[in-house]
Design brief:
By secondary structure, the protein is α+β, with helices and mostly antiparallel strands. It has helices at residues 8-13, 23-29, 58-62, 95-103, 152-157, 165-172, 183-189, 205-218, 225-236, and strands at residues 34-37, 40-43, 48-49, 105-109, 118-124, 131-135, 144-148, 178-182. The chain is built from nine helices and eight strands. The model is unreliable at 5-48 (pLDDT under 50).
């Protein structure tokens, strides 16, 4: 494995459970005026801001999320969530390469980049269950893409438009909301929520929806009625499914 902490073995086991919060994220959020309200937080002016991903039972956490219809998509653009792959953990590497290095094994790096630019690696794709040999290149890089587990368009319509720009940038680049996955499968997901798309690999669905609940709870977002019911149906098949917690920050080699 490369010079940074990895979670590929955890993904292989489909049990992404831990108790260590992202210390860099804490340091950024520490200056924000927030008051805890359940699993999420609310700013002094009533604007939702990010907290720390909750721990515990995913079904219980789902029950704490507000259930209501989608807000209009008016005003949405990818730019509302900051520059793509912003180095929010300030380790010197962009978030795309951080996630590639975290989620793959046997990776190699471009010389002179301090183990930042991933050239090759092996991904045990959680969405399909197949093995993918990644090779950076014009025609091959898209074989492995970085998915926003809670799609940013969905996030925008379920509370993120109420966040300030800095918090949306954290959401758009949060390792909790990012996973390296099979490119074509990610394309098929689009901006779907759990009511319209679930991973083809049924063994990963419990962890997948638990991760969505974790992200929505962390950022004070809500779920639609159809989304709530779809997540609840998946979790009913895996009682006691744990939430996915904040990964520790990546450290460049």
């Amino acid at each position: 494995m490369g010079g940074r902490g990895r979670f590929a073995t955890v993904l292989l086991a489909f049990a992404l459970v831990g108790t260590t919060a992202c210390s860099e994220l804490d340091s950024v959020l520490g200056g924000l005026p927030t008051t805890a309200t359940g699993t999420g937080t609310t700013g002094q002016a009533g604007t939702a801001t990010a907290g720390v991903a909750p721990t515990g039972d995913a079904a219980a956490a789902l029950a704490t999320l507000a259930v209501k219809g989608r807000a209009p998509k008016t005003g949405y653009s990818r730019d509302q969530f900051g520059a793509a792959w912003t180095d929010t953990d300030h380790n010197g590497c962009d978030q795309r390469n951080d996630v590639l290095a975290r989620d793959m094994t046997g990776e190699t790096f471009k010389p002179g980049t301090h183990d930042c630019v991933v050239l090759t690696g092996n991904l045990a794709d959680p969405y399909t269950g197949k093995a993918i040999a990644f090779k950076r290149g014009q025609d091959t890089s898209d074989d492995v893409q970085i998915d926003h587990v809670v799609a940013l368009s969905d996030a925008w319509q379920t509370g993120a438009q109420q966040l300030d720009a800095a918090t949306r940038t954290l959401l758009g680049n949060d390792p909790l909301n990012l996973m390296a996955v099979d490119g074509p499968t990610n394309q098929s997901k689009g901006d779907g929520d759990a009511a319209t798309w679930l991973p083809p690999n049924r063994q990963f669905r419990c962890t997948y929806v638990a991760r969505q609940v974790s992200v929505k709870a962390k950022y004070g977002m809500w779920v639609t009625p159809a989304e709530h019911d779809a997540i609840a149906a998946v979790l009913a098949g895996c009682p006691g499914q744990a939430l996915v917690t904040d990964p520790p920050p990546a450290v460049a080699g």
